[in-house]
Amino acid sequence: MALVRLRGQLKRLAGDRAEHALAGATVGDLLRQLERDHPATDGWILDERGEIRRHINVFVNGELRGREFAVGDDDRVDILPAISGG
Amino acid sequence: MTELLVGTRKGLFVLTGEPGEPFEVSARAFAGEPVEYALRDPRSGRMLASVTSAFYGPKLWHSDDPAGDWEQAAGMTLPEGGEAALERIWTIALGESDGVLYAGGDPGVLFESRDGGANWELNRGLWEHPTRPGWQPGGGGLCLHSIATWPGEPDRLAVAISAAGVWLTDDSGATWRQGNDGLIPRYVPEDTPPEEAGLCVHRLHRAPARPDRLFMQFHGGVYRSDDAGETWQDIAAGLPSDFGFPLALDPADPDSAFLIPLAADTDRVTPGGQVRVYETRDAGRSWTPRGSGLPQQHAYLTVLREAFDWRGGGDGLELYFGATSGDVFGTADAGESWSTVATRLPPVLSVAAG
Question: What is the interface pTM, i.e. ipTM, of the complex?
Fold first, then answer.
């Protein structure tokens, strides 16, 4: 299973746990699994269309990746707010 | 004691004070987040706040204590797997029936709660309206920003969408029809077909003491309807500009309305550097500027559509408005005299008085 790491508000919504071992073939699969395991995260990372929200970045092993990117058992997935705002 | 819920670019501020005097900041919530709109439901005492996180999207929250914990409301989403996502929750309004609330948002959507704001459901009649594919967004998005209930008749609503015009229902939102006759969009050529024009309503309110009367600030035009929104007549003559966003009423007087005109759509500040509220007491036949106590020199303020509200009525009508400068002003004598309620807040997006 891949290791999904969360911080801040997302961590609190996901049972106040930073690290989650999740099964899935793609980044999108992992995020859907996270929502199933922790319904409070529903709508916070993925919108109703299933798209990753514009100002959320998903890194796989340190590289910025999209929803369709394939992930393996040993991959590390970090979900972080983008550097943006005002 | 009056309570103002002030939504700002950097959180919700709860201001409390005596009318006519400076208010104190009694609580702040959602620090750093844009709070589009917040109100307290006087029936339950519960506060509701619409917050648009730049990262996590729009959410609606409720709490009985603004300084305490807030709970996320459920159901405030569009259908999963579709082509649209909820972009913003612009406004919240009290329904006529006990426990009923409405919320409007982008993309032109209406939600209803029947349990005081904990759970919400999308209004399918408006969402699935056959004309929806032709709706055009205004500069702020396809925002449903105004919800006018009908006192004593919970099945009747008018809503306004920028730039999809006015929509009316008599069956609690099962079916909707347009109410736009008489509106003139000067921002398109005069021969543009009505279905392609895009009707950019900026604000709409119903006169509670005469519910078939509505007032509207349009994108270039001020209008009144005396037939529940079916037809509209221009009442802007006498104003320094017919462009603006906010609108307020005196609930005790159906002939009254208050506007804060801005110079023009290309210069969205108070005209001439003077902050003035324009009052009509004859349903728009004449307008009187009210500026006593407001900045009258080099004051170029922008007041957004939801940043103007009222409390009470008649001679003791309280009016409050906030500007993107972070200033909040108020009157406790129906606009005769004004004073500064708060200053140096973040840019003000909304004001709700209770």
Answer: 0.83
Q: What is the pTM of this model?
A: 0.94
Using the 8-state DSSP alphabet, how is residue B194 labeled? Answer: H
User: How far is it, in rounded angstroms, from Cα B200 to Cα B242?
Assistant: 13
Cβ atoms < 10 Å from Cβ of B21: 13
Distance from CA of A45 to the nearest CA of B (A): 6
Q: Helix or strand or coil: residue B209?
A: coil
Rg over alpha carbons for chain A, rounded to the nearest Å, is 12
Distance of alpha carbon B268 from alpha carbon B266, whole angstroms: 6
How far is it, in rounded angstroms, from Cα A44 to Cα B57?
7
**pLDDT per residue over A10-63, tens digit each?**
999 999 999 999 999 999 999 999 999 999 999 999 999 999 999 999 999 999
Of A47, A85, A86, the CB nearest to B57: A47
Tokens 């029947």 belong to B114
Q: What would the pLDDT profile of B76-90 be if each residue is shown by its tens digit?
A: 999 999 999 999 999
| CA distance, residue B28 to nearest chain A CA (Å) | 18
| Out of A40, A50, A56, closest to residue B55 by CB | A56
First to last CA, chain A: 37
Residue of B nearest to A10 (CA): B56
- Among B54, B80, B85, select the one facing A85 at the smallest CB separation: B54
